[in-house]
Design brief:
Strand order of the largest sheet: 3-2-5
Number of domains: 1
Shape: globular
Distance between the termini: 16 Å
Radius of gyration: 17 Å
Largest sheet: 3 strands, mixed
CATH class: Alpha Beta
Helix content: 40-55%
CATH topology: Rossmann fold
Number of strands: 5
Number of helices: 5
Length: 127
């Protein structure tokens, strides 16, 4: 989606009603460091613990990059077996490790767009 918006190419997407636990990469790194520095043992999920609709991400990125007319929400069916909800149970990360994500909403989108723009400049134009 990001590459399509940056290159001004049309893109068919699902309806965006899937829920996913998106987490800023800086929070992921900080969560791993917090876990490694803790005495907690065993399985610990790294995630925000709160899944949100994928459509929220689609809308947030489109607002920042423009090109809403290029994106066809619902123009592509979900993949076979694609789950409708992917989220991490972050109970142990939050309660035992003591980690809570710092980045969210606006920062998450702004940072993702800035990174994608840098990557897009470094790559040859799509043919």
């Amino acid at each position: 989606m990001m590459a399509s918006l940056l290159d001004r190419r049309p893109r068919d997407l699902t309806d965006g009603t899937q829920f996913q636990d998106f987490m800023h990469v800086s929070d992921v790194a900080a969560a791993f460091l917090s876990l490694l520095r803790s005495d907690v043992q065993g399985l610990v999920n790294i995630g925000g613990g709160k899944a949100g609709p994928q459509r929220e991400v689609m809308d947030g990125l489109t607002q920042r990059l423009g090109g809403g007319d290029l994106i066809n929400i619902g123009g592509r069916p979900r993949g076979t077996g694609e789950p409708s909800n992917i989220g991490a149970d972050a109970t142990r990360l939050i309660e035992e490790v003591g980690f809570r994500p710092v980045y969210g909403g606006k920062t998450r989108f702004d940072d993702r767009v800035a990174w994608a723009r840098l990557q897009n400049q470094a790559l040859p134009a799509a043919s």
